[in-house]
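To assess whether ligand presence alters the predicted conformation, the chain was also submitted together with adenosine-5'-triphosphate. Input:
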Amino acid sequence: MEHVIDIKNVSHLFKQHRALDGITFQVAPQSLHGFVGPNGAGKTTTLKLICTLLKPQMGQINVFDYDVRSNVKAIRRRIGYMPDHFSMYRQMTVFEYLDFFGAAYGFSLKERNRIVGDVLALTDMDGRKDDFIQGLSRGMQQRVSLARVLVNDPDLLLLDEPASGLDPRARIELMEILRELRRMGKTIFISSHILSELAELCDSVTIIDRGKTKYSGPMEALLDEKTETPTFRIRVDLPADEVEAALSKINGVVSIQPMEGRSDVRVKLDPTLTDSNQFLGDVINLGCNIINFGRDQRHLNEAFMDLTERGVRN
Ligand SMILES: Nc1ncnc2c1ncn2[C@@H]1O[C@H](COP(=O)(O)OP(=O)(O)OP(=O)(O)O)[C@@H](O)[C@H]1O
């Protein structure tokens, strides 16, 4: 199987409103794939089509090589979908809640005890199994929701804005759990409207806007997009007022920009006059200690703003 998700030319209308307008993208097995777009871009609609909650109107969607139109059961058995607004049985304990879903999948009591133990360990919730859901923080409830999605041991996780409303610590912990799940061989498709949130986590990304695919491919390629003037980020142990004078003498340097609140500078080069090896050699020849030297990747927000349009869609 080449792709876990394969979407070709998919459009979707709600009455006259075109929510999706010919989107196309693929998700490779065992990848952590980000799905990013501004509000109203069509992320939830796409997720619902992939997880068979909406019927496709136009185009082709295959999940594990199954056509979503004709293989609903086979697909549902292998996916776990976590919607953006989760409603839970708040008066149950964590154990009862997960056990209930295990029973709905038809697992025996013995199997359920093992499965619930496993998913609680995976989501680091073992110590909370007897707590009532209504007493848990949002971050903890989100973890229970993720544990619930793992009960049927799905190969593909579809997570709609899983980090929304979480504090920074809960976000970082959630990302760590997702990395662990990927290490276990699962494919994770995660939507967000914040690109930078997914940058470190995801190896590939699809950006959509107003129902259209704007980018789909490796995260690295999005950030490394060729610019006419290669940019480097440098920190050397010279006094701040000497850095600019020293670097400006180097052949091919077009501009030097101090980075706000940091002692790094951003240096743009003219590629017809120098290249990265030559430039590094010239910086070494300045004779000072080099603390940091690296290619400056395009800022994520820049990439996102370049690819998406102004204004909020209704
Ligand atoms: N059931 C529906 N009936 C009518 N219009 C809908 C329906 N569901 C979604 N839409 C519209 O389709 C477009 C795409 O909505 P969707 O929820 O897929 O976007 P989204 O990218 O998930 O947005 P957000 O980040 O705000 O959750 C929006 O313009 C939305 O208003």
